[in-house]
């Protein structure tokens, strides 16, 4: 898990397809909302000046575009799904930053930090509604060609969004609890991260009317990949390089976050658990105490357990793909994405 | 506009149909979210103890149930639409209270005041997603019978939600501006309140597959009624009896709200406008100054203009209904609701 990988071609290709459609969608908002959304997406700075950037890496768009191709259709038919998922993902980030009182994301001030809490809430709400509009009426973004299954795609998206929100609410509930098991943490992260990635991997196929078995296999691929992705995220949240993650080192420990490595360590039953629990219950941890936390989580097996989970869920994702009847080319690109996502950023 | 009216039968009837379906829907949430939603809806108190109440008056549910009947179907087929709209309406109230920093609603502490801002945001998000699930898969709530048009209904709901959010964002933008015209205020309120009432009056008909002309007429009826409703609300926000409204008297003036009466008064061009502008720009108004504001708004014609608007939009709503091919019984009940809504609470 330490090699540097290059961005798969499909992610660049998908971004080129999806970026103009994202702009067209956000243009449907009124000027107040549009400017704030454009800031969050990295298109403009806080003063509204263009940054020349098209925003993020585009993991979800790539999955959605490939998903249509996996069902034997052109990738462009997955674009309404890709846009809808990007909108939901970004609305959840904007609201998350308010809820977590996070002032920075991707090395920039968060929406609420720039525009205030009220505007962060309303722009998130606007992106959520826009996501449904785009997928229910995909003709907004895809001109001629296939008649797309907007109804089924919207249902898939609404279900995934509901699971994501349930996961977020569990995450918040964990903050109020002393004990959270590794399995509870895993279930929470399957909702919080897995559901939307599952939706991304399946929505293109749903839009073009793929058989249920294909849709199920792709969804499972995405969910497992999402858990693997989140496991890596949780590792980065403690041991990630602050220059790469854009967060201070041991960031999740500073925030007393009950992530996978921490809950695994606490569930180990070994000597050191009590010390770790006591540290995590301490309000303001010193740098030395935070370092000691990281050391304990590692010694109690939290790092290894999370690494193992990332690996086993990556294998489960690939196995789900093996069972699906999809073209070899799409399969190859899904595999490329999967490796890229899980082997990133160390 | 001063008589006391009794609650129309259809509102009681619709509540009896919709209340159990609301409970069934909210039961789909996880326990953390469910408890907070149940508190907001008035079903339980802050400690989770049942209040024995089924919540609000049910204007929107009544419109949605009647809407199915207007298309010649049984009212129960409008229930998924009624539930979806109640969920959207309530999610917007929960988020609004956070954005406006309002600590009280319906004589009870607001969700954020009891559970904190983060939980208010997440439960609002959850209700929004649930609304889409319910309408996209109406079979959750309606057993046998007609195959309902979930796709078209979801699109109607998503469009109305987007308009409502755009209206709310305009309302917020008005706070940062010195001058807002009566027409701008009216356009904002058509979005903020009219869109969802239009959707309520049309969604039952859409679900049961009514002709486009009927859907359009019902939608227009609801939008006009919504503007009339909001005009009355703005009157109550200044001159309403605090015991009935649950807010302090001159509440909107205390908050410097640029409502219909205020923008109408400011647009009058008469003597007193400058004094009113100056008062509205003053940070902490004394009781005497607030009383003077109310007097000025009235003297500058703001109260009459808003009363006129409430009347003319009620007539426009009834005219839209006249043009629709719907059963007399449904028409009669729509008219009853319209009068009740506009003549309430003085």
Which features characterize this protein?
homodimer; 346 residues; mainly alpha; Farnesyl Diphosphate Synthase; two-stranded antiparallel sheet
Q: What features would you describe in this structure?
A:
The structure is a homodimer of 346-residue chains. By secondary structure, chain A is mostly helical. Chain A has one domain: Farnesyl Diphosphate Synthase. Chain A is 69% helix and 1% strand. Chain A has 16 helices and two strands. Chain A has a two-stranded antiparallel ribbon with strand order 1-2. In chain A, helix 1 packs across helix 4. Chain A is globular and about 65 Å long. The mean pLDDT of chain A is 92. Chains A and B meet through helix 4, helix 6 and helix 7 of A and helix 4, helix 6 and helix 7 of B.
How is the secondary structure organized here?
The structure is a homodimer of 346-residue chains.
Chain A: H1 9-26, H2 31-40, H3 59-70, H4 79-99, E1 104-105, E2 108-109, H5 111-115, H6 117-136, H7 150-175, H8 182-207, H9 212-239, H10 242-245, H11 251-254, H12 260-266, H13 273-280, H14 287-299, H15 302-322, H16 328-342
Antiparallel strand pairs in A: 1-2
Assigned CATH architecture of chain A = Orthogonal Bundle
Looking at CATH, the homologous superfamily of chain A is Farnesyl Diphosphate Synthase
Q: Which H/E pattern describes the elements of chain A? A: HHHHEEHHHHHHHHHHHH
Question: If strands are numbered along the chain, what order do they take across the biggest sheet of chain A?
Answer: 1-2
Query: What's the shape of chain A?
Result: globular
Give the CATH class of chain A: Mainly Alpha
The quaternary organization reads as homodimer
Largest interface: A-B, 41 and 41 residues
């Amino acid at each position: 898990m330490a090699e540097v990988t290059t961005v798969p071609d499909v992610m660049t290709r998908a971004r080129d397809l999806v970026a103009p459609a994202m702009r067209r969608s956000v243009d449907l908002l009124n000027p107040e909302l549009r400017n704030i959304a454009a800031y969050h997406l990295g298109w403009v700075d806080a003063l509204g000046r263009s940054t020349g950037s098209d925003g993020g890496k585009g993991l979800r768009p790539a999955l959605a575009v490939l998903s249509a191709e996996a069902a034997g259709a052109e990738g462009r038919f997955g674009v309404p799904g890709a846009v809808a998922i990007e909108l939901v993902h970004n609305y959840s980030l904007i609201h998350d930053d308010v809820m977590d009182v996070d002032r920075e994301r991707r090395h920039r001030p968060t929406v609420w930090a720039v525009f205030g809490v009220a505007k962060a809430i309303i722009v998130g709400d606007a992106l959520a509604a826009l996501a449904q509009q785009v997928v229910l009426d995909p003709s907004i973004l895809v001109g001629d060609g296939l008649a797309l299954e907007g109804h089924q795609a919207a249902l898939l998206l609404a279900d995934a969004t509901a699971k994501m929100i349930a996961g977020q609410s569990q995450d918040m509930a964990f903050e109020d609890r002393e004990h959270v098991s590794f399995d509870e943490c895993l279930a929470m992260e399957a909702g919080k991260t897995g559901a939307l990635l599952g939706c991304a991997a399946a929505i293109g196929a749903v839009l073009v009317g793929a058989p249920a078995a294909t849709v199920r296999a792709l969804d499972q691929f995405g969910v497992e990949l999402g858990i693997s992705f989140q496991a890596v995220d949780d590792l980065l949240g403690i041991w990630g390089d602050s220059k790469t993650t854009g967060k201070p080192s041991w960031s999740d420990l500073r925030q007393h976050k009950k992530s996978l490595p921490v809950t695994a360590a606490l569930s180990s039953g070994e000597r050191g658990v009590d010390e770790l629990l006591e540290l995590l219950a301490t309000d303001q941890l010193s740098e030395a105490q935070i370092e000691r936390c990281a050391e304990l989580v590692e010694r109690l097996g939290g790092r290894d357990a999370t690494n193992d989970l990332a690996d086993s869920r990556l294998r489960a994702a690939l196995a789900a793909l093996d069972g699906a009847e999809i073209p070899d080319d799409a399969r190859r690109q899904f595999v490329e994405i999967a490796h890229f996502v899980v082997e990133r950023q160390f």
